[in-house]
């Protein structure tokens, strides 16, 4: 019996250690739209495994998926990716769904394009597809997005429609993300969203900026443009972050960048 408990304890410790390791490897690379900083593209490629990485570009949000895939894949290849495949159209039947799930299973990183984030989430109403992406991320899978592909990362998602908030993918549960932020003067709408959910943090990523998020909380700004942080409590306030500034999304304060 003592031997059993000793072995059981070892298994528990191993499982806890693996879970902690996987969590520490969770990476999001979130582009605000417009020009994509090459450093952030390089980060995404390296996080995914470098030249050997199999990267999947999902263009369901776009009305011009082939063109969008071409532009994103060119950026990825320029940063050293050798294997880039596309999911141009949303799965419409069980066979296409199986094909996408096979692509996802084989991928080391996935990049969601811009367009309309509601299009993505309409597809991800299929729980099998949504759960597969969330499970891969939980296990240390690298996820990136730009514009719509960034906005959908929040649990509460900015839609840009008459109903400003919808249900997102939920890889970030403690923030509401908005994009094209300074360029399109979106401060008021994000402040309104945070007023509805004052426990959450507003993160506005401008065009030409990217935010690298590790384990859902440690965020680092990449690129020449800026990221705006909006808090509702104790009173509405903003914090402006520039390249290489780091912020703890859980503690809601600046922090030293992780080595």
Any descriptors?
globular, alpha/beta, 4-stranded mixed beta sheet, 9-stranded mixed beta sheet, Rossmann fold, 15 strands, 36% helix, disordered N terminus, 259 residues
Quick recap:
36% of the residues lie in helices and 25% in strands.
Structural write-up:
This protein is of the alpha/beta class and 259 residues long. The chain has a single domain (27-254), classed as 3-Layer(aba) Sandwich (Rossmann fold), CATH 3.40.50. 36% of the residues lie in helices and 25% in strands. The chain has helices at 2-24, 38-48, 65-78, 94-106, 117-123, 127-138, 148-151, 187-196, and strands at 27-31, 54-58, 83-87, 109-112, 142-146, 156-158, 165-167, 175-179, 201-205, 210-214, 218-222, 227-231, 237-241, 246-248, 253-254. Strands 3-2-4-5-1-10-11-14-15 form a nine-stranded mixed beta sheet, with helices on both faces. A four-stranded mixed beta sheet has the order 8-9-12-13. Strands 6-7 form a two-stranded antiparallel ribbon. α4 runs parallel beside α6 (127-138). The model is unreliable at 1-23 (pLDDT under 50).
